[in-house]
Every structure is written in structure tokens, then in C-alpha cells.
Amino acid sequence: MKHFHIYQRIKNRPTYFRCIHPDCKHYLEKELVIGRRAECPYCHDDYVIQRRDLNNKTPHCSNCIAPGYENNTKTTKMKPKDKLRVTKLQTLFEDKVSKFLEGVER
To answer: DSSP E strands: which ranges in 1-106?
Structure first.
């Protein structure tokens, strides 16, 4: 079976990574995974694993971010007070931009 592996850290052996394809029994030690070509579990493009990728439980390419994260910040449910602050900032920003554009057009 030829494919690029999708690696995931083994829970009870944190220095080893295994392929998560259902028919694949491949696993390697952490140091041997560095520099290997693998498949990104999110976008399914191939990429070369670097040392920093191995900090994740499931390494992925640099173009993708893990689920639950948006713009590299963890997404959580906002409190109503925070939502109000965000909407105030958005309206303030929109007003300033429109005033600036009016001044430019004159």
C-alpha cells in the first residue's frame, strides 16, 4: 500500500508517532519522523515534517490550523459583555473610516 502517512503521537509512547490510515501499521520514533514527507490530516496536501510540527498531537502543514483555532487564537464562546465591546469597536472603526473617506474625496 503506497500512500503518504498521516502521523499522530501514540498516547502511551509519546516519543513515537503512528500512521492513522486504517490499513497502515507504520510507526516511527519522533527523531526519525523529522524530514519525512507526510499528508496533512486537514487539507490532505503533502508536506515535509519539521521539528516544530511534532509539538502537536497530530502534525499538520503550516497552511492549516488545528480545529478549534481561528487566526491562531483559540475560539471560545464570547460572553455577552465581550460581544457588546466588539460591536462597539466595529461601529467606532466604521465611523472613523467613513469620516476619513469623506475627507479624502473632498
So the answer is: 7-10, 13-19, 27-29, 37-39, 46-48, 69-70, 73-74
